Amino acid sequence: MPKSAAAARRPAPAGGEVVPLRAPARGAGAQLPLNELAYAAIKERILSLELRPGQFVNEQALCALLGLGRMPVHQAVHRLMAEKLLDVLPRKGLVIRADSLNEVLALLEARCAVEPNIAALAAERAAADQVKAMRKLLADSRRLVDQRYRRQFMAFDRAFHQAVAEAAGNSILVDAQRPLHERSARIWAIRVWGPDGLRLTQREHEAVLDAIGRRDADGARAAMRSHLEALGARILEGAEQNGELVPAV
Predict the structure, then answer these.
(1) Which of 8, 71, 150, 166 could form a cystine bridge with 155, CB 3.0-4.6 A?
(2) What value, to the nearest 5°, has the Cα angle with vertex 182 and ends 232 and 20?
(3) pTM for the whole thing?
(4) Candidates 1.10.10.10, 3.40.605.10, 3.20.20.70, 3.30.160.20; CATH matching 3-96
(5) How far apart are CA 184 and CA 191, in angstroms?
(6) What residues pair up with 95 in beta bridges, in sequence order?
(7) Per DSSP, which regions of 84-234 are E strands?
(8) 104 to each of 96, 187, 203, how far by Cα in Å?
(9) Closest CA to 23 of 44, 8, 9
(10) Tens of pLDDT along 21-61?
(11) Domain 101-242: homologous superfamily in CATH
């Protein structure tokens, strides 16, 4: 199971609580500058929804919990603000950014401009071991389509889209896709998922991979576009039923 999937099992914090953050293990990451360690640790907690949209945090607490000084944490916070993962509210401090409905749909529109072509390239260029690894990811995620496992499924969703991007064999496209997909993580924190939402997403992922496995570039492009457009339609339907983007509990 991917590391990100394992991380998704950890319980989400209560609203407003600042939870301990763990920097990457010193063994593998010993050569990383302290600001990179702080950045990686905080960002992973945001993307895995351990730090939830709308939750308040502060630099002093983050410093203490990470065991790092003010400067690396301060630098990490500024990077995360530039990536629109954190906001500053006057007299209140830092808050994990929660996207509006328009922002969520704009993110999906941006992904539609990039990811279908990435999937087409993956169909042309993916190595056999990459296709095998993606099949393993989807075999594992197939067991998590119940809404009880939504956070675990989210980790596999991230891993699958990243694997498709890497299979395209273009590092610039990987770098272009990653922040768009990372910002989309907040989709998983809102109550827009109907009972069949994860099953539909799983089925759409399988359609993308089926086309990649058949080396069908046009089919992969169409399947990825269909997936993202269907996701947008599900979000709109959920927002209409709730009257807004409601945080999931």
Answers:
(1) 8
(2) 125
(3) 0.73
(4) 1.10.10.10
(5) 14
(6) 56, 87
(7) 86-89, 93-96
(8) 15, 7, 22
(9) 44
(10) 444 444 444 467 898 999 988 888 887 777 878 889 888 88
(11) GntR ligand-binding domain-like (1.20.120.530)
